[in-house]
Amino acid sequence: MTNDKYEAVIGLEVHAQLRTETKAFCGCTTKFGNAPNSNVCPVCLGMPGVLPVLNKKVVDFTIRMGLATHCTIAPKSIFARKNYFYPDLPKGYQISQYEEPICRHGYVDIEMEDGASKRIGITRIHMEEDAGKSIHDLDVDTLVDVNRCGVPLIEIVSEPDIRTPHEAYQYLYAIKQLVTYLDICDGNMEEGSLRCDANISVRLKGTEAFGTKTEVKNMNSFRHVERALEYEIQRQIELIEDGGNVVQETLLWDANKNVAVPMRSKEEAHDYRYFPEPDLVPVLVSEEWINEVKKILPELPKERRNRFIQNFGLPKYDAEVITAEKPVADYFENAASHLSQKNSDTYKSVSNWVMTDVLRVVNERHIAVNDFPVRPEHLSAMINFIIEGTISGKIAKDVFEEMLKTGEEPKAIIERKGLMQVSDTSVIEKAVDDVLARNAEQVEKYRGGKTQVFGFFVGETMKATKGKANPKLVNEILKRKLGG
Ligand code: ADP
Ligand code: MG
Ligand code: ZN
Fold it and tell me: Mind listing the pLDDT tens digit for each residue in 409-429?
C-alpha cells in the first residue's frame, strides 16, 4: 500500500565481457576453462617494468556498441588507473576509463508494461579490464585464479531513468540483445559474461530530488535483478516510512535467501585515486574508423523485428520471439527464403514451426540453433510439401521427427517411408465406403440429424489410410456419400 506513495529511481551499470581472442593489453588468451593461472604473462600479472599494448579489437567492439546505442564516439579518450587492493588484482590497480570515456550520451528504447516505448539514457560506455577471481567456497583456503585478469570489458552506465524492476529487466534484455547481435559478447549472465549492478533510490511521487541510493551487486540472472530490485525498493520504503534514513552502501544479493546483505559502505571516486594511465597513449578514433564500423554494423533487433512484421506479415508476438536471438532470426529467414510460395500464410507457417518445434527441441536439448539437426532449407522443403498437398500437416510432424533423428532431407524420408498423401479419389472412396459400412449405427444417427458424428467418420477414414488421405478430399467424399 505504501508503495503507491513512492516511486523508485534506478540506474544500471552493466559490464559486458568482450569476445576477443586475446586480452585487452597483452597477447594472453581469453579462453574460459583453462587451468587456473595458466592464461597469464608478466603484463597481466602486473610485473614491474612491463608495458601494456592496447588490443585494437577492444576499441572496435566498443565503437560498435556505442553506435548501436546512439552514443557520441569521442575522437580522443583516455585510460585511467583505478587503484585498489584486492588479492585477485595483482597490479594493485585496474586499467579503466574515467573522465574521458570513449562513448557518451546514448540511449536504448525499451517497452514498458503497457506496451508504450520508453527511452533510457546511456551516460557513458567505457573500456576496462577485468580482475581475477577469488574462490572462497572451499574448506581449505581462499584460492585466486588470475586467468581473467586483463580480459576486456565494457561498462555501460545508464542514466537514472528506470522506474520499475520490469523496466530494468527490459533494459537489461535490450542490452543483452544488442551485444549478442553485435557479436561482441556472448551475453551469458549465469557465466558472468554480462554482469549488472543496480543503483536504487526511492522518492515520494511528484518530487524531483533523488533520494540516497544504494548499490546492489551480484545478481547473475534476469530474475535475480528483478527480485533484488523489488526487495531493495520495498526495504527503502519501509525504512523511510519507519522514520529512518537510507544509508549509501553497497549490498550483495543473496539469491538463496532472497535478501540483499550489506557488503561495505559505499566507496567514493576519490577512494580510487584515479589518474591517467601513464603507460598507454590516448585512444584516437578517426571518422574513417567510425565509418568502417558503421558499414559492418548488422541490422539490430528492433529494426529486424519491425522488418519481420512488415515484410513477412508476422504477428508482433511471433516477430518478437523469432528475433529475440539472432541465430533464430537467421534460421527463420533462411527457411523463409526457400519457400516455394511466399506469402504471409506460408511465412506464418515457418514461424509456427520455428516457435514450437525448433525452439522446443533447442531448449530441451540445450543446443545452439546453429547446431540444430534440421537445416532451415529442409524445414521449408517440408513445408513446401504441405503446401503442395504431398503430405498433411499431421504427417509433417512425423517427417520432422525423422529429420531430427537422421538429418535427411524430407523428400528422402517421405519416399522411403511412403508418406505421400493419398489424393487418389478411388482409394479414398473405398476407405470411406468401408468406414460407413462398418458403422451403420453412426450413419443412422448422422442422417437423423446428429451431424457431430461427422468428425468421427473423418477420423476413422484417416486412421484407415494411416493418416495419408488428403483431408480435403476425405471431407468432400464423406459429405457426398452421407448427404445422399
Ligand atoms: P557513483 O559515483 O556512486 O558510481 P554515478 O553518478 O557514477 O554514481 O552513477 C552510477 C549509477 O547510479 C548510474 O547508473 C546512475 O544513473 C545511477 N544513479 C545516480 N544517482 C542515483 C540515484 N539517486 N538513485 C538511483 N540511481 C542513481
Ligand atoms: Mg559507479
Ligand atoms: Zn597476459
Answer: 999 998 888 888 777 888 889
